[in-house]
# Entry
Amino acid sequence: MKFVFFHLMPYPYLPDDFDEKYASPSLDFPNKHFDRKLGNKLYHRYLDELEYAEKLGFDGIAVNEHHQTAYGLMPAPNIMAAALSRRTSKAKVMVLGNAIGIRDHPLRVAEEIAMLDHLTDGRLVSGFVRGIGWEYYAHSISPTRSRDRFNEAHDLIVKAWTSDEVFQWVSPNYEFRYVNVWPRPLQEPHPPIYIPGAGSTETMKFCAERRYTYMSVYAPTPVVKRWFDGYRQAANDIGYEPDPEKLGLSIPVYVAETDEQAHAEGRQHIEWLFHKGLKQGLERVMPPGYTSLSSLRGMLSARGAKPFNELTYEEIIDNGMAVVGSPDTVGERFEAMIDELGFGQIISLMGVGDMPHYRTVKSMELYATQVMPALRRRSSEAVPAAVS
# Structure
């Protein structure tokens, strides 16, 4: 079992009238609400938390990419990875990931990831994401081109990493007369690739065919099971039996000394994430043409009857969309989820929403010293069966 500390780097200082006045923290939420001094402190605080995660024994520390949003302040995740590269020495530095579908120059991603691979001495993990619907609007790109742009950018980047001769690349979305990336990545043939999925059958097949790690996004446990089973089925169809480590569960986590204390302290921060941060609206997340009709049906069923911002705290916990409790309770909950879902990585969001630094650190310490060791011992004794 591998443990990843993931950070969204949210901007929690929303105006008092946010719920009534604004439809979302993304795309058209005015940046006049960004306080420069508070934002400056947040960046340093969040990097401190990521660095501390390595000291606590997390296997990986992870950042990601979002644009024009208070949901996450990382439009350039490779900058954050560079900041972490020389301040850490053991944990994987994981960019989960670069939104290559919105990049007009994906070769820049190939170059930056190759540099980061050297700066981290081969500890770099490269995630690729398509980018969320609103991010295509923010970059004046039609969402209908998302899948094709992602696939072409991916193929170009991987070929740039693995070719040792100059080549030309001409495709419907990109044209490069000379592709000759310097430096080449340190890892051979390239850093490990992770890709998140939200029910798209195309993404499941894409990951399985290339032996990539498939990550869930936030969803009820039965829905995540369908996704993981879909990845396993896609892999089995081509004669590939994926290791549990090829499946990563992404989930918010909060740990306190007792269940009562954990829920009393964690409730408001979990609610901030789902009610404010994830207050996006389907038209922003999956605009027309962003995904195929079959995948859209799967995604709509995954979201359930209610949008995230209408879920109660109890529904979030009961549906397995967050894990909150004492170390024993959190450990038992994850044991049950491992048995049911068959994953081998927990990608924990622990700086949840508007959670203050002291609570984030306390939760990290309890998780790292009491939950992680028990789950590591359990996984070393028996590999969970992948039920399909």
Remarks:
- The first helix runs from residue 18 to 21.
- The longest strand covers residues 247-255.
